[in-house]
Design goal:
Number of domains: 1
CATH superfamily: P-loop containing nucleotide triphosphate hydrolases
Low-confidence stretches: 1-5
Order of helices and strands: HHHEHEHEHEHH
Mean pLDDT: 87
Radius of gyration: 16 Å
Oligomer: single chain
Number of strands: 4
Bound molecules: adenosine-5'-triphosphate
CATH class: Alpha Beta
Strand order of the largest sheet: 2-3-1-4
Distance between the termini: 37 Å
Structural class: alpha/beta
């Protein structure tokens, strides 16, 4: 299996081993060992693994590692949203937010994860977006609603996009929403 033996958690320069230790993650799972080295190289990935196999960590750890590097955007927008995680349901989104926050807990700097799944009201979520999050997690419909309301902008700052449970996202008919929010 590619990279499994070579991949310890030491490759995450700005994420202290404390986060994975706190979670009791002694070693990468199979999907993490396969996906993380490629993601760290900046490759686009399409990954599939069974439920509970650690897919959130497989994208979450390299995503956080990427965010610890300086933003690629000009300094005027460098403080804007750099990563977007799209999920098919609020329940999955809340689980993803929880995992990302746990993994980010001991980062070299504060990484802010905005939860667009927790509140149902668009207006109630605006303050969360005004706190200049690094990562936004939400359903395509909700993200699109914020883009339309101009409470969120991705155009000049977005560097990373994750479609979590892409099969469900696309089969729920979110395809058009996803296209519109990216263009
Ligand atoms: N390297 C690891 N070592 C031990 N436990 C891990 C590791 N990575 C993830 N886990 C744990 O495994 C459980 C499942 O992880 P996760 O939710 O990421 O799986 P998943 O593949 O995304 O599942 P689903 O398809 O249901 O969303 C979680 O409790 C998580 O903390």
């Amino acid at each position: 299996m590619r990279g499994r033996d070579a991949l310890g958690w030491g490759c995450f320069a700005g994420l202290t081993p404390q986060a994975v230790a706190e979670l009791g993650w002694a070693a990468p799972t199979a999907i993490q060992a396969e996906a993380i080295p490629l993601a760290l190289e900046g490759r686009d990935l399409l990954a599939r693994a069974r439920t509970g196999s650690g897919k959130t960590g497989a994208y979450g750890l390299p995503l956080l590692q990427h965010l610890l590097r300086p933003a690629q955007a000009p300094s005027a927008v460098a403080q804007a949203v750099r990563a977007l995680v799209l999920v098919p349901s609020k329940e999955l989104g809340q689980q993803v937010v929880r995992s990302l926050r746990q993994l980010a807990a001991f980062c070299a700097r504060d990484v802010r994860v905005a939860d667009l799944c927790a509140q149902t009201d668009l207006a109630a979520q605006r303050p969360v977006l005004m706190e200049k999050p690094d990562v936004v997690v939400g359903t395509p419909g909700r993200v699109l609603a914020h883009l339309s309301a101009r409470s969120l902008s991705l155009r000049h700052s977005l560097e990373l996009l994750v479609l979590d449970e892409a099969d469900l996202l696309l089969s729920f008919g979110f395809g058009e929403d996803i296209k519109s929010l990216l263009w």
